[in-house]
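User: Hey, my collaborator sent me this sequence without any context and asked if I could get a structure. I don't really work with proteins. Can you help?
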Amino acid sequence: DRIYTHGEIEMESMREKLKTVIPANEKTLEELRMIGKKYGLNFDDYFKL
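Assistant: No problem. I've predicted the 3D structure and written it out in structure-token form, which is a compact way to encode the shape of the chain:
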């Protein structure tokens, strides 16, 4: 069994998320929603927040 130091689990989780997630602010997310709507796509069907 592995013993974790304080904060180590959270740090590993953050590293994994940074490998697979593209950070975006609220304005960018809203623009993506509007573009999707323009082309008949539902933003939430493609992206998990």
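In plain terms: The first helix runs from residue 8 to 20. You can pass these tokens on to your collaborator as they are.
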